[in-house]
Amino acid sequence: MTSAAFSLRQIALTAFGPSLLFGLGEGAILPVIPLTARAMGASVPVTALLVGLIGIGSLLSNIPASMITMRHGERWAIVAGAIWCAVAMALCGWSGNLGVFAMGCFMIGMSQAIFSLARQSYLTEVVPVEYRARVMSTLGGSMRIGMFIGPFVAAAAIHFYGLAGAYGVGMAALVASGVLAARLPELSLHAVDKYPNTTGDKPRTLTILTTLHANRHVFVTLGLGMLLVSAVRTTRQTVIPLWADHLALDASVTAVIYGLASGVEMLLFYPAGKVMDQMGRRWVVVPSLVIMGAGLLLLPLTHNAQTLLLVAMAIAFGNGIGSGMMMTLGADHSPRHGRAHFLGLWRLMADVGASCGPVLLSLLAATLTLGAGIAATGVMAFIAAGQLAYWIPRAQARTGDTER
Questions:
Q1: What is the pLDDT of residues 146-159, one digit of tens each?
Q2: Does residue 324 sit in helix, strand or coil?
Q3: Which residue from 132, 242, 374, 404 puts its CA 20 to 30 A from 11's CA?
Q4: Per-residue pLDDT band at 2 (split at 50, 70, 90)
């Protein structure tokens, strides 16, 4: 679609509606998954493992998700991801068996990978590059809004139907997401599995390995930076409640602090995308990481609910202005042919970072102190800022517009 013919309002419902509904569905069931496991007799360690299966399922499914998207096209991959997640929620909510429940949790992670990769690939293709960051930021923002609304809708359903009500809300949202996604126009270019080589001979088969080799410079420069960003972002979700517990704050106070910080994040996704589009990616990416890093370094110095709230909101502000930056940079550098394979590898690196960040925090907290672990995460944010500040204008983007 050309820039002149493109209108964000025209695609808003079908582009962002499925993501908002997917986020609502997941937001409805994620808080009750541990409660369901405990009600089925799982111990606390087993419950933690079952919840962790969601992340493991996403991590292990990024590459298969790229293959599904390449083979069947973005639209039907999005629909399949939504329906697969609805089936997984049914298994979690009504199986009554911990083994089946574990499979359902893993399937939720699988659906996250398929749905998210296909959505990103689709919008990368149809949206003009001049609007790309705004669309990617809004895509991430719509998912966050859904995740924010989901628990409240689920709470009302739980009041009348018990824990099963939350799964019912989640399934309804996911089915609606799939129906809405089915209305997306199919791309003219999808399931492309060949690309010409430089010798002029017959086309070379496009695989994960050939995509990795062709884009190795991007993965070892920007990709490593994104891995660090993902580690910081995942860890900052953990450190705020942990430090609140360290300060002996009530759970209700902790929830209010976390909720207010989440609200700050949701207000910033579109302005952040507009700045990235008009001024360049580095003008948002670097300040986002610097603000988060400074907030994380200040967090161990807080001593009451008021100071913790201020720092938590600063961290949320930094994360909020960086909304969509990982998807935007991935889209900028993804090749037109084999885009799904590239984005699958990009998401795999991000998920590895997301898995390693909390582990590093745990190790540092166990061997040193919680404050030292939080400070180390802040230092990691500054390292990521330096890495990306250097490479964003230097890594050659496919679009040629990574830095304007």
A1: 988 888 899 889 98
A2: coil
A3: 404
A4: low
Of 6-20, 210-224, 225-239, 278-292, the one with minimum mean pLDDT is: 6-20
H helices present in 247-337, as ranges: 251-266, 269-279, 282-298, 305-321, 325-333
Report which residue type is found at 397: A
In angstroms, the CA 306 to CA 247 distance is: 12
Q: Which residues contact 356 (CB under 8 A, 6 or more apart)?
A: 231
Q: Does domain 13-184 have CATH number 1.20.1250.20?
A: yes
This prediction has a pTM of 0.81
Domains 13-184 and 204-391 belong to one CATH topology: yes
Among 48, 339, 397, 25, CA closest to 181: 25
Q: Write phi, then psi, for 184 (nearest 5 degrees).
A: -65, 140
Domain borders along the chain are 13-184, 204-391
CA nearest 28: which of 196, 163, 201, 197?
Answer: 163
Please name which of 136, 302, 330, 311 lies closest in space to residue 229, comparing C-alpha atoms: 330
pLDDT, tens digit, for every residue of 287-307? 999 999 999 999 999 999 999
Q: Which two tokens stand for residue 299?
A: 């967090």
From CA 365, how far away is CA 372, in angstroms rounded? 7
Residue showing tokens 């009041």: 159
Strand pairing report for 194-195 and 204-205: antiparallel
